[in-house]
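Entry: Ankyrin repeat protein, putative
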Amino acid sequence: MDQRVVSQIIEAIQQDDYVLVSNLCQTGVDLNVLSDEYQITPLKTAIEFDNIQIALKLLEYGADPNTYYFGLTPLGQAVDLYCLMVQEDPEDNNLSMIKFLINHGASPKLLGSDGTSAIDVAIAYGCQDILDVLESI
């Protein structure tokens, strides 16, 4: 059941359907399960779609900001996406998802499965503004 519901949550996040995400979270599903269908957790999907409101709902229902299965941690993913956006458009420098994750317990020093932390990602991209935020913790 968890796999099916997790996939439905991911689809609801992709469609920006907060009400459906909220209703599905109330089923008691383990939000830290990796979707077999999408190979991602709901929280990493919310990060990918830059949806803090849904990310907060997921955390309220037990999503762990430090859970990952492969690749980057959720915070590492947020840093990666941010740095890519800033490279494309230097004016697009909204740190809200990164600050949100940090404020909800995401560790900038936690290593992903590839041995890379969020700090390492910021260094690799040369994103000094993020590095300043991450190192101040």
